[in-house]
Specification:
InterPro entries: Vta1-like (IPR044538), Vta1/CALS_N (IPR039431), Vta1/CALS_N_sf (IPR023175), Vta1_C (IPR041212). It holds the Pfam family Vta1_C. Belongs to the VTA1 family. It is found in: Cytoplasm; Endosome membrane. The chain is mostly helical. Among the domains are: 70 residues, Vacuolar protein sorting-associated protein vta1 (Serine Threonine Protein Phosphatase 5, Tetratricopeptide repeat, Alpha Horseshoe), CATH 1.25.40.270; 76 residues, Vacuolar protein sorting-associated protein vta1 (Serine Threonine Protein Phosphatase 5, Tetratricopeptide repeat); 39 residues, Single alpha-helices involved in coiled-coils or other helix-helix interfaces, CATH 1.20.5. The chain has ten helices and two strands.
Length: 305
């Protein structure tokens, strides 16, 4: 991936997007699609904040140059040319970052990598708004992840032991103002299997905006190796073999009957499940891919989900 021309100094008005731009830089080589949408989010947000002040106009112009260069480099990548694929890509990436941190948290392994994962997941959920309004699940995940990042960071900073797992959210913590929270390295190791999934509001287990999640899901496989120097002892964790869900045999013999009429919304949902499956395969997540393909097939053959 070719290097970009550096951006001018960030205008004070754009402080709220500084961490999204940092996340974009961190992903230029790791995941250019994520980098592209982080910049797009920063661009759109910056335009709403101030597009008239000379320093802001200059900054946004240079950011636009980076966007255009990155889009040209990505060429015909479906995650850029098709919004539904791009949205699925971002949701899957943010989800895996979140689950990595959540599993570490529930296991009582508190360190800078998991703080960074919680915070990065919250930033990427911000970025998903380039595709439209967030789902209620995404809003809850963002709020929880951002608060957890601040809570654990402050505990470690003050020499206190954080409370593992879901706890009451304190509204007076402003993670956006905390530079240290967003400055740690990204995780490199998948967590040990966990039977629990985040459910602060009694969400059904193993569900996230329609995507089926296997327990013990891990951080994206293409995160770079970063030395651990957090002072927290951690054991080397081996990836857990994936368990492929059983396929319903009736799906193979089911044929769409003549009296079944699929609506445009049915076709759109089926396409979305297929795109989620394709995005999951990018992370070698067979279980999620199979489950979403099953949902698409059932919808197309029965007209029901």
């Amino acid at each position: 991936m070719a290097a970009f021309a550096p951006l001018p100094p960030l205008p004070p008005q754009f402080k709220s997007i500084q961490h999204h731009l940092r996340t974009a830089q961190e992903h230029d080589k790791r995941d250019p699609v994520v980098a592209y949408y982080c910049r797009l989010y920063a661009m759109q947000t910056g335009m709403k904040i101030d597009s008239k002040t000379p320093e802001c106009r200059k900054f946004l112009s240079k950011l636009m140059d980076q966007l255009e260069a990155l889009k040209k480099q990505l060429g015909d990548n479906e995650a850029i040319t098709q919004e539904i694929v791009g949205c699925a890509h971002l949701e899957n990436y943010a989800l895996k970052m979140f689950l990595y941190a959540d599993n570490e948290d529930r296991a009582g392994r508190f360190h800078k990598n998991m703080i960074k994962s919680f915070y990065t997941a919250s930033l990427l959920i911000d970025v998903i708004t380039v595709f439209g309004e967030l789902t209620d699940e995404n809003v809850r995940h963002r709020k929880y992840a951002r608060w957890k990042a601040t809570y654990i960071h402050n505990c470690l900073k003050n020499g206190e032991t954080p409370q593992a797992g879901p706890v009451g959210i304190e509204e007076d913590n402003d993670v956006e103002e905390n530079e240290e929270v967003g400055a740690a390295s990204l995780p490199t190791q998948p967590p040990q299997p966990s039977s629990s999934a985040y459910d602060p509001s009694s969400m059904p287990p193993s569900s996230y905006t329609g995507i089926q999640i296997p327990p013990g899901a891990h951080a994206p496989a293409n995160t770079p190796e970063v030395p651990h120097s957090t002072g927290v002892t951690s054991n080397t964790i081996q990836p857990t073999p994936q368990t492929v869900p059983a396929i319903d045999p009736s799906l193979f013999s089911t044929i769409s009957q003549g009296d079944i009429r699929l609506t445009p919304e049915d076709f759109a949902r089926a396409q979305k499940y297929c795109k989620y499956a394709g995005s999951a395969l990018q992370y070698e997540d067979v279980s999620t891919a199979v489950q979403n393909l099953q949902k698409a097939l059932k919808l197309l053959t029965t007209g029901r989900e």
